[in-house]
Amino acid sequence: MTELRRGPVVPQVASLLRQRLRRGDWRPGERLPNEVRLAAEFGVGRSSVREAVRLLVQDGLLDVRHGSGTFVATGEPPATRDVRQLVRRARLLEVYEVRRALEVEAARLAAQRVRPEDVARLREGLRKRQDERDSDPAVFVDADLAFHRAVVELSGNALLLSLFTAAEPVLREILTDLVRHETHLPDSSPAHADLLDALERQDPDAAVAATVANLDPVRCGVRTAATRTPLDQPG
Q1: How many angstroms separate the CA atoms of 105 and 145, rounded?
Q2: Confidence at residue 223, expressed as pLDDT on a 0 to 100 scale
Q3: Rounded to the nearest 10 degrees, what angle do helices 137-154 and 189-200 cross at?
Q4: Furthest-apart CA pair in the chain: how many Å?
Q5: 137-154 vs 158-181: helix axis angle to the nearest 10?
Q6: Bridge partners of residue 69, in order along the sequence
Q7: For 80, how many CA atoms within 13 A lie in the half-sphere containing its CB?
Q8: Angle formed by the axes of helices 137-154 and 116-131, to 10°?
Q9: Over its length of 235 residues, how does the chain's per-residue pLDDT go in tens digits?
């Protein structure tokens, strides 16, 4: 049985399925094991497997044939695949726009409400994030999101935390995909350090500036990628 990490289950199951597809465990057109077998293999419920399969169907990797089972997709025309990538990037841009608004306000509030013991916990979270920079992308993203979640928690605003919690599984999936496949992502480590420093000094304006410096370069890069036509894609 595959042992999953702590945290949302569906993105992890989807990632494991993608890995097995890339590894060639199942050939194009081949039927996957049923939900019961996959659930037992991953140690999760059938509903988690079903939702993970749905994500891969959206990506064009799997094909669900009702009454027959789930099959590895046999491929699609390059133009269709390019359009699918553009749609995914556009959705990522929307998520990032919401994330920016949410985390900017959370950082401002956190700077007003943070306590010395909170700073120590944030410092440990940031250290872990830095230690995981060269780890598997999924592990690094988990550490990164844990740091940001801690800042949102310190805002003391339950609604902001609920919104972050709702967005977190989507952020985890798309950020892992970005880290794994984009080779020119800017290093946001200095902005993270500036955010921690601003919180420790209880400086709301500096906390907001550090949060913007962290999120905006990636958001701008995603916007650029989302507006490319398929012919603009590097070949």
Answers
A1: 17
A2: 62
A3: 20
A4: 61
A5: 160
A6: 65
A7: 7
A8: 170
A9: 566 666 678 888 888 898 888 888 898 899 999 999 999 998 999 999 999 998 888 777 888 888 889 999 886 544 445 544 544 555 677 777 888 999 999 999 999 999 999 999 999 999 999 999 888 888 899 999 999 999 999 999 988 988 888 888 778 877 887 788 776 777 889 999 999 999 999 999 999 999 999 988 776 656 655 554 433 433 3
Q: Could you tell me the two tokens for 33? A: 């094991």
- Scan for tokens 């199942």, then name that residue: 26
Number of CB atoms found within 10 A of residue 19's CB = 10
DSSP 200-230: HTT-HHHHHHHHHHHHHHHHHHHHHHHT--G
Q: What are phi and psi of 192, to 5 degrees?
A: -65, -40
Question: Rounded CA gap, 118 and 147, in Å?
Answer: 12
Residue 58 CB: number of other CB atoms within 10 A?
12
Are 107 and 195 in contact by the 8 Å Cβ rule? The answer is yes
